[in-house]
User: Which sequence fits this backbone?
């Protein structure tokens, strides 16, 4: 397969009508892709009897027999499995310059001094090694602030763009804080050699991470497997659609860090002697605006009230890339008064590393337009978003019949089918993934070069926020990506916000969207109606830092700019209460 990293080639090959306002989809006969080989189409085999079942949640984690000290010995084979080949481990093509210039604001009673490097973060040497093994050289802006904030013991509300490293921003400091204390804090567990799990032990995690989708739960579990390496903290994942029995057996083997989707978590909590949240020290709610959505209210409240911890004993962390004002207000009701609010860029903004094209399409010619688009570009790992399960099925058939290597995923598929589709897409066997919004949030697949909104999100189902999450599947962590959206007359309700989003990120606005340009010419004053930052300053006592960064590591007295040359102000990791220098392994629980 050629062209994975060659966005330049992709852009050059974009159809001329991309931004001209002409209607795409005029019938052109294709027999094969002129721009390279898309590879063989493959058909998944879902016959239950035909193969061994592999559930992503059963992936191998670091195990020990209780004889080791606070840190386990190296395990080269597992290390290779978790982190990949050392020769090819370093991330390629990262361009931090765009995310480095993004303004960082913080609020809270205490000011957080950002760290400049992971070495300044006071991480245990084994944790620092895990970070290195992950290939992380420089902390991203959200990591610069969250690592010290969590170390200081604050509750947190953190907002940063898609693909900006929010997962490690909480996993690294939380696990760093708990490691070394695992033996003291963790629940009793059977030895890994004990095949039947010994007695019926109840899982009592120290960390619970709640996420809205099964795919995201699996992905965060895989990240946690890396960060937990040698820490003596055992990660587990539970999610709907896969066998309950094996998940129960697994968490009973020892479960210090539990990642789960809400339905399955509650199911386990309601069973006798299976899962108790009484030991929980950290509760992380990822994609928090989605989790606080009214649809999840019942489940969410059950989980939050599901432990008998003393008040103040649990730290709550809420993370997302989008956070409508109303939901943010609700979020605050779950946090301690001394919580810290960290915001990288405008809430809900996307970044300039993603090139966004919007093409006007006749609704009846969409399939043809899609084919034209795919054939006009170099083959590249691509996610195609649609708004209904039926369209996903239809499009899968259509592209498959055109000999293209595609797969699809939506909520009506079995968990087996969903995992197979994700696996094939990650491996590159089927570089085209057609999906509904189920995968929009959080999913991180390397080298997704192109996101296509075959349907733009409707305003009733996520609107511009969903658009931001969807296109954020490309252009992650400093990489470049392309997002193409098909616009039809029916998309008028999203037109204004879409146009403002294009303008904010310095994209070309196509002719047909000109009329939706706001009167306000100053981009920094744009009002994204669904969301305003107006209530932020001072609501929690103090607002810190409102100035833009210059990317050189400088900022003015109030600003918190993150730049290649270093962070803001006195962010040397050794100052103030932050005391980021030096690992302190002694427990303070
Ligand atoms: N400091 C770093 N340097 C390089 N890569 C990093 C760093 N931190 C995280 N990453 C990688 O960046 C990718 C994106 O991270 P992550 O999925 O946590 O983003 P996110 O902010 O949660 O995105 P989303 O809002 O879409 O969920 C991951 O592949 C992760 O391994």
Assistant:
């Amino acid at each position: 397969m050629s062209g994975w990293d060659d966005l330049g080639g992709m852009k050059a090959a974009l159809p001329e009508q991309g931004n001209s306002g002409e209607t795409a989809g005029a019938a052109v006969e294709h027999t094969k892709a002129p721009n390279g080989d898309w590879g063989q189409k493959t058909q998944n085999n879902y016959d239950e009897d035909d193969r061994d079942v592999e559930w992503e949640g059963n992936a191998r984690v670091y195990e020990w027999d209780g004889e080791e000290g606070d840190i386990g010995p190296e395990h080269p084979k597992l290390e290779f499995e978790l982190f990949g080949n050392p020769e090819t481990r370093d991330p390629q093509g990262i361009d931090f310059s765009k995310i480095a210039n993004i303004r960082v604001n913080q609020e809270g009673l205490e000011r957080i001094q950002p760290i400049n490097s992971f070495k300044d973060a006071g991480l245990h040497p084994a944790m620092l090694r895990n970070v290195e093994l992950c290939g992380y050289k420089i902390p991203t802006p959200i990591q610069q602030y969250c690592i010290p904030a969590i170390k200081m013991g604050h509750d947190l509300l953190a907002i940063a763009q898609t693909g900006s490293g929010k997962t490690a921003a909480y996993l690294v400091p939380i696990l760093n804080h708990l490691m070394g204390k695992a033996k003291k804090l963790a629940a009793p567990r059977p030895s890994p050699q004990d095949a039947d799990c010994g007695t019926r032990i109840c899982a009592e995690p120290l960390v619970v991470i709640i996420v809205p989708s099964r795919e995201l739960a699996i992905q965060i579990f895989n990240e946690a497997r890396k960060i937990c390496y040698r820490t003596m903290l055992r990660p587990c994942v539970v999610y709907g659609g896969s066998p309950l029995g094996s998940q129960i057996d697994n968490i009973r083997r020892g479960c210090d860090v539990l990642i789960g989707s809400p339905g399955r978590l509650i199911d386990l909590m309601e069973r006798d002697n299976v899962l108790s949240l009484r030991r929980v020290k950290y509760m992380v709610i990822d994609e928090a605006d989605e989790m606080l959505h009214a649809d999840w209210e019942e489940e969410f409240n059950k989980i939050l009230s599901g432990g008998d911890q003393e008040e103040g004993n649990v730290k709550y962390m809420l993370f997302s890339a989008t956070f409508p004002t109303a939901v943010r207000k609700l979020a605050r009701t779950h946090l301690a008064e001394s919580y810290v609010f960290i915001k990288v860029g405008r809430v809900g903004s996307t970044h300039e590393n993603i090139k966004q094209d919007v093409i006007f399409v006749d609704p009846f010619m969409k399939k043809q337009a899609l084919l034209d688009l795919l054939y006009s570009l170099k083959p590249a790992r691509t996610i195609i978003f649609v708004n209904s399960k039926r369209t996903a099925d239809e499009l899968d058939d259509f592209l498959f019949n055109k000999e293209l290597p595609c797969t699809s995923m939506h909520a009506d598929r079995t968990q087996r089918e969903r995992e197979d589709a994700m696996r094939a897409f990650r491996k590159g066997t089927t570089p085209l993934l057609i999906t509904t919004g189920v995968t929009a949030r959080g999913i991180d697949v390397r080298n997704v070069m192109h996101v296509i909104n075959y349907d733009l999100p409707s305003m009733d189902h996520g609107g511009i926020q969903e658009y931001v999450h969807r296109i954020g599947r490309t252009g992650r962590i400093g990489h470049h990506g392309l997002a193409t959206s098909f616009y039809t007359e029916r998309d008028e309700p999203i037109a204004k916000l879409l146009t403002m989003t294009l303008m904010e990120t310095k994209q070309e606005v196509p002719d047909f969207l000109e009329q939706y340009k706001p009167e306000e010419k100053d981009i920094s004053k744009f009002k994204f109606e669904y969301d305003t930052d107006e209530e932020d300053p001072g609501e929690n006592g103090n607002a810190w830092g409102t100035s833009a960064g210059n990317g050189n590591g400088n900022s003015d007295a109030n600003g918190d700019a993150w730049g290649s040359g270093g962070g803001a102000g006195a962010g040397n990791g050794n100052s103030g209460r932050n005391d980021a220098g030096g690992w302190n392994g002694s427990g303070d629980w």
